[in-house]
């Protein structure tokens, strides 16, 4: 993080009148002045690249869906000796095509060797018959052969239900954000959320993890967190939007100011959300050896990180780009404050200090009728004056 | 103002810690969901394209619950979500048994009662029963298990011509067990009784080895629960009878579909509560009913007792004596019904007139996705993670960090008490998904503090007093917290209503922890910070990790 903060550093301290701090100190004290808007293409570019990789993996490799989504029957035969060929033979003898079955030999969580045989959906009678046949072959009781059977319609119906729920959820949330904030923000928030979910699903496709109902839960968690985080950021943006409504301020400035003001909160929150998951991954799964936690924690970790990342580097630029199309902000596109100017905005809040610095830039621009004309507009006085007066009295 | 703040602060802390202490004292722990404990999950749905009444589906769910309860499974979960019935049986290992248990048909059968009903647990003195018993024991000691079935059936039915298939192929014929139990109290010879019990046991193993080694689940009286097998003679329990009564019934001669679905419970003049229902006209309704009724009225060999039993899924809902040979359009059933008995019977008849046919959608043997050790590892590492978060908060926000520490314990205590309480009262089970929800909620909860404190710092930095900053900071932060939390709540509600299984569990915990977050932010964090901000001590702003505005003096 620290190298992004460096650029503004060498500029005049006297201009702001603030005591200079190191990059971390400024971060800590909320005095950063990073030009998020100017660097938006970096973030969007990285996201686009990652999205391409994810989509490529999802389309190319596909997702490793568990039985719950596809339908089918699985037998798990705990046996130290049963071979793959024998397992297929058992299926052939029971009237199923052994060659089509998916046979895996793996170690169970309790340490024994387990032969796992999976075929497409079968009626219950056949499931029982094959279960008995496996038990006989392996020399164990039928009860020891665990079977799972899911009809293909069931798998389809839960997938459909989940998708329907997701759509309803998206529509409601979009309406809610549009009502409380703005529809452009709703759009950006949902795009950012889709970005996060797609990246997380991409991780599953790239590494070939099995997607189970528990994974779907992890994805939903990500989705919820992503939205939550984005909304907190947007709330700040909207607040600044209102605050600067009277000033002819480019939207990029509003965005940059908001981002810098909310940066510390975003970092803190991300850290607070990631720490437990990281602990689960490193201590729980790594040191204490609970391997089953790993995939779950990994999906959550990726989701939380992308969630925090996207609210700053994806959702916010998207909002800025959408807002800049509005008539109010359109003429102002192309000149936003950076460096010290931005820092003053972040700290002082009021754009008044910016007036002098802005004049030189504005001078050669003919579309700008208001700003240079009057000496000081009343609105500037109102927003700027009260604070210094108070301070002086105190000192 | 100050008093109200104190009141809310003390109130919420009392509530949270009181709840926690109560759960600890009563040693209440949340029950673990299927995915944490392992067990069997069976999902059923009505056959697509078939017609069924919705009351029939209700009845099926009730029936499943009744059976599962009688089995004594700890913490079973029977959920009806739309048309889907999900039965989760944690800790159950025997899959076949579970499947048989939950497979109810909703089909109502009309079966003739072939001999007198017997009451269990009272010493039977009548000669007929004694006779039956003797035969059974004699048969058991000398012949094979399969033969026992025939002999005992033959004896109790009293007509050797009844077609009982020796050893019904799939399941051990439970009628053996019944006969054995009734036989026990007679004690003709102690040795013989032992043998007969032994014979019963042998039967189970013999037939079990032939198919799968499953003993049928027993009901509350230690009698095997039977799958309804309408093609053979069976001895079935009478629903709700006390003391428990069992009646031998012959093969079904009709289904509940002879009735139309207008059965109503009314007071029949002179006879008390009863049920009146119309018959469907034609070959499938009236004719079927009348054939059976005539047989029974004339006490023919197929129906010597003159009684017709109405059976639903292996239990007899009503055993009624036929009083006329033919019925014309409607049937009236009366007897010693109470109002609720009559209503229940009417409901059964109605649902049986258009029965639901459930189709097995999925049977899964859920192995615990987190074993006991893993679960412990999850808790420990999760707590360490939360500890790190709190440490960070203290380092970053100094004195305010301690408010986060206390606040997290308040949220934690509140959440844990609610989970335990719900687990106890409404069978909520903690699942892996739930744990995920809780872990993520840590982030969201801490965020509420971060949003608030960052606001507070902004306000202080712009030169306001601590006291003012706290008030203004909270107003601004509260808005943000509410918007963000409402989105989470919307998500939780939608997911809860529209999905099934694990996702639903997750949605519940997400909603719960979000609601807790709102409550704690308003009733704990707000008063705590506002009160703290009033103290003289807090005016030295270093204590919360903010310096006074640096250029204040210089300018």
Concise description?
Chain A contains 16 helices and six strands. Chain A is of the alpha+beta class and 395 residues long.
Radius of gyration of chain A: 29 Å
| Beta-strand proportion of chain A | 5-15%
Mean pLDDT of chain A: 75
Estimated radius of gyration of chain B: 33 Å
SSE succession of chain A: HHHHEHEHEEHEHHEHHHHHHH
Distance between the termini of chain B: 36 Å
Shape of chain B: elongated
Task: Tell me about this structure.
The complex is a heterodimer of chains A (395) and B (555). Chain A is of the alpha+beta class. Chain A folds into 2 domains: 233 residues, Multidrug efflux transporter AcrB transmembrane domain (Multidrug efflux transporter AcrB transmembrane fold, Up-down Bundle), CATH 1.20.1640; 79 residues, Alpha-Beta Plaits. Chain A has 16 helices and 6 strands. In chain A, the strands form 2 sheets. A 4-stranded antiparallel β-sheet of chain A has the order 3-4-2-5. In chain A, strand 3 and strand 4 form a beta hairpin. In chain A, helix 10 packs parallel to helix 12. The two termini of chain A are 36 Å apart. By secondary structure, chain B is α+β, with helices and mostly antiparallel strands. Chain B has 3 domains: 207 residues, Multidrug efflux transporter AcrB transmembrane fold, CATH 1.20.1640; 192 residues, Alpha-Beta Plaits (2-Layer Sandwich), CATH 3.30.70.3400; 105 residues, no CATH class. Chain B has a 4-stranded antiparallel β-sheet with strand order 3-4-2-15. In chain B, strands 9-5-12-13 form a 4-stranded antiparallel β-sheet. In chain B, a hairpin with a 3-residue loop joins strand 10 and strand 11. Chain B starts with a helix and ends in a 21-residue tail after the last helix. At the A-B interface, helix 7, strand 5, helix 8, helix 10 and helix 11 of A face helix 4, strand 15, helix 11, helix 13 and helix 14 of B.
């Amino acid at each position: 993080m620290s190298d992004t903060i460096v650029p503004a550093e060498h500029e005049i301290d006297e201009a702001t009148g603030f005591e200079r701090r190191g990059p971390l100190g400024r971060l800590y004290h909320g005095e950063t002045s990073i030009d998020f808007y100017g660097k938006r293409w970096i973030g969007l570019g990285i996201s686009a690249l990652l999205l391409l990789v994810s989509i490529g993996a999802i389309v190319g490799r596909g997702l490793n869906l568990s039985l719950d989504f596809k339908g089918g029957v699985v037998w798990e035969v705990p046996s130290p000796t049963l071979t793959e060929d024998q397992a297929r033979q058992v299926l052939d003898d029971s009237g199923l095509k052994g060659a089509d079955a998916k046979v895996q030999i793996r170690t169970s969580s309790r340490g024994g060797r387990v032969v796992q045989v999976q075929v497409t959906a079968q009626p219950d009678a056949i499931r029982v018959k094959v279960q008995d046949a496996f038990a006989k072959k392996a020399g164990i009781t039928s009860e020891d052969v665990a079977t799972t059977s899911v009809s293909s319609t069931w798998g389809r119906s839960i997938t459909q239900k989940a998708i329907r729920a997701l759509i309803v959820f998206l529509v409601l949330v979009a309406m809610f954000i549009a009502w409380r904030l703005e529809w452009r923000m709703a759009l950006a928030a949902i795009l950012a959320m889709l970005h996060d979910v797609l990246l997380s699903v991409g991780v599953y496709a790239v590494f070939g993890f099995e997607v189970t109902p528990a994974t779907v839960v992890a994805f939903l968690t990500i989705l919820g967190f992503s939205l939550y985080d984005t909304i907190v950021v947007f709330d700040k943006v909207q607040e600044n939007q209102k605050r600067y409504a009277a000033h002819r301020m480019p939207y990029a400035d509003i965005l940059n100011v908001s981002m810098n003001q909310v940066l510390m909160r975003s970092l803190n929150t991300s850290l607070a959300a990631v720490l437990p998951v990281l602990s689960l991954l490193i201590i729980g799964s790594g040191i204490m050896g609970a391997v089953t936690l790993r995939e779950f924690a990994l999906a959550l970790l990726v989701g939380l990180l992308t969630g925090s990342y996207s609210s700053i580097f994806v959702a916010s630029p998207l909002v800025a780009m959408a807002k800049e199309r509005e008539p109010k902000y359109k003429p102002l596109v192309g000149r936003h404050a950076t460096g010290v100017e931005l820092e003053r905005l972040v700290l002082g809040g009021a754009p008044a200090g910016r007036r002098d610095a802005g004049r030189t830039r504005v001078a050669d621009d003919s579309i700008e009728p208001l700003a240079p004309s009057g000496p000081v507009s009343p609105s500037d006085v109102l927003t700027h004056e009260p604070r210094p007066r108070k301070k002086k009295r105190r000192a | 103002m100050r008093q109200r703040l104190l009141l809310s602060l003390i109130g919420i802390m009392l509530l949270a810690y009181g709840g926690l202490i109560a759960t600890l004292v009563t040693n209440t722990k949340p029950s673990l969901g299927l995915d944490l404990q392992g067990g069997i999950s069976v999902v059923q749905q009505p056959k697509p394209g078939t017609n069924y009444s919705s009351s029939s589906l209700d009845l099926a769910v009730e029936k499943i619950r009744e059976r599962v309860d009688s089995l004594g499974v700890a913490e079973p979960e029977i959920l009806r979500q739309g048309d889907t019935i999900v039965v989760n049986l944690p800790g159950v290992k025997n899959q076949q048994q579970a499947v048989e248990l939950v497979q109810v048909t909703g089909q109502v059968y009309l079966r003739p009662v072939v001999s007198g009903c017997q009451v269990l647990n009272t010493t039977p003195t009548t000669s007929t029963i004694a006779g039956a018993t003797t035969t059974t024991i004699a048969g058991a000691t000398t012949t094979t298990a399969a033969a026992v079935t025939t002999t005992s059936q033959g004896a109790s039915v009293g007509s050797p011509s009844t077609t009982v298939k020796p050893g019904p192929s799939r399941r051990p014929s439970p009628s053996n067990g019944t006969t054995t139990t009734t036989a026990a109290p007679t004690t003709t010879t102690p040795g013989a009784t032992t043998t007969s019990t032994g014979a019963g046991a042998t039967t189970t193993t013999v037939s079990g080895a032939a198919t799968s080694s499953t003993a049928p689940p027993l009901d509350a009286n230690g009698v095997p629960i039977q799958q309804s097998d309408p093609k053979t003679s069976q001895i079935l329990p009478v629903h709700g009878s006390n003391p428990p009564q069992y009646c031998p019934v012959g093969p079904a001669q009709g289904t509940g579909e002879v009735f139309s679905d207008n059965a109503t419970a009314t007071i029949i003049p002179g006879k008390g509560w009863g049920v009146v229902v119309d018959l469907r006209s034609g070959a499938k309704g009236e004719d079927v009913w009348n054939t059976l009724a005539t047989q029974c009225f004339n006490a023919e060999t197929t129906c010597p007792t003159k009684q017709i039993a109405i059976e639903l899924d292996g239990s007899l809902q009503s055993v009624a004596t036929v009083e006329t040979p033919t019925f014309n359009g409607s049937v009236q059933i009366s007897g010693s019904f109470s109002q609720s008995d009559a209503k229940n019977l009417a409901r059964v008849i109605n649902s049986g007139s258009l029965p639901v046919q459930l189709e097995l959608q999925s049977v899964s043997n859920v192995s615990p996705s987190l074993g006991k050790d893993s679960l412990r590892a999850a808790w420990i590492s999760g707590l360490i993670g939360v500890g790190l978060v709190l440490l960070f908060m203290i380092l970053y926000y100094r004195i305010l960090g301690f408010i986060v520490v206390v606040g997290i314990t308040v949220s934690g205590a509140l959440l844990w008490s609610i989970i335990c309480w719900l687990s106890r009262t409404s069978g909520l089970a903690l699942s892996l998904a739930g744990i995920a929800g809780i872990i993520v909620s840590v982030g969201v909860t801490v965020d509420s503090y971060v949003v608030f404190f960052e606001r507070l710092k902004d306000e202080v930095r712009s030169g306001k007093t601590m006291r003012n900053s706290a008030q203004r900071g909270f107003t601004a932060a509260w808005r943000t917290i509410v918007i963000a939390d409402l989105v989470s709540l919307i998500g939780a509600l939608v997911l809860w209503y529209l999905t099934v299984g694990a996702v639903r569990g997750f949605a519940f915990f997400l909603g719960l922890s979000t609601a807790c977050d709102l409550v704690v932010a308003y009733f704990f964090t707000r008063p705590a910070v506002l009160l703290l901000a009033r103290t003289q001590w807090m005016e030295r702003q270093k204590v919360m990790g903010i310096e006074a505005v640096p250029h204040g003096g210089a300018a």
